[in-house]
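testing teh design pipeline on a random one, pls ignore if ur not involved
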């Protein structure tokens, strides 16, 4: 019943910065979970540890029951990460980018899956355009589609609406909510309480690497 379980997780960078300090929390399957905190709080570090991009210093983390150290491949296969930085080849088209990703994960019926995802994120008209010609919001939606290519049960979005205008933000949220209705567990980081309030069932707040709250959204908002 736990989509993600994080126990006593700490990260101290080589430079000496303690980015995470003894953080523990669980994300329930089927929920939309918000990780809130100001810039520099440690949110990206936490996500990068789940993504396998940053090595933790101590503690443990599991995704869909798979420990990231013991079963890293199964853990990775259970999660789709939408990174904060937009990065893909500017001369790849959305269709090519998704087909390539599908190939990496050995997804069956890659072409059909690609078209399905392009429709879902409303990029079917841009299927054959160079990624460099897409707007910021379109690129972000392409990243969401890319994270969903292997149909993971959990998707994590790191500051998904940074630099996205209000209309595109709404389209992104509509898609995320739709995924959640279809059973996908969603974790998102944001530094906007308002955004987390609207979307999340539960919100954890992190500051200076420490977890300072973890409550159902209603209780948290009641306190403010
Ligand atoms: P290291 O793991 O040795 O710190 P990095 O290449 O990650 O190696 O970073 C080198 C140095 O650059 C770090 O020690 C840190 O001082 C600084 N640094 C890198 N990324 C960041 C960041 N996102 N925020 C603050 N400082 C950073
Ligand atoms: P957030 O995503 O909440 O803005 P981060 O996880 O990016 O926070 O950063 C947490 C802290 O760790 C910050 O003080 C940041 O400068 C530092 N940091 C991030 N990456 C590195 C790095 N590679 N090396 C050294 N310090 C880093």
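output:
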């Amino acid at each position: 019943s736990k989509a993600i379980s994080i126990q006593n997780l700490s990260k101290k960078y080589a430079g000496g910065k303690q980015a995470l300090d003894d953080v523990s929390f669980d994300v329930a399957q089927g929920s939309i979970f918000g990780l809130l905190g100001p810039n520099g709080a440690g949110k990206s570090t936490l996500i990068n540890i789940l993504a396998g991009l940053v090595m933790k210093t101590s503690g443990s983390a599991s995704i869909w029951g798979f420990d990231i150290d013991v079963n890293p491949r199964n853990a990775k296969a259970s999660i789709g990460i939408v990174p904060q930085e937009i990065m893909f080849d500017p001369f790849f088209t959305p269709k090519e980018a998704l087909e390539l990703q599908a190939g990496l994960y050995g997804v069956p019926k890659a072409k059909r899956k690609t078209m399905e995802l392009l429709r879902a994120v409303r990029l079917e008209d841009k299927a054959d355009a160079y990624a460099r010609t897409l707007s910021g919001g379109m690129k972000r939606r392409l990243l969401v589609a890319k994270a969903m290519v292997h149909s993971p049960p959990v998707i994590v979005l790191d500051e998904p609406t940074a630099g996205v205008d209000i209309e595109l933000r709404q389209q992104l949220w509509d898609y995320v909510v739709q995924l959640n209705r279809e059973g996908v567990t969603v974790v998102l980081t944001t530094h906007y309480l308002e955004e987390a309030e609207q979307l999340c069932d539960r919100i954890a707040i992190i500051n200076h690497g420490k977890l300072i709250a973890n409550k159902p959204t209603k209780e948290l908002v009641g306190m403010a």
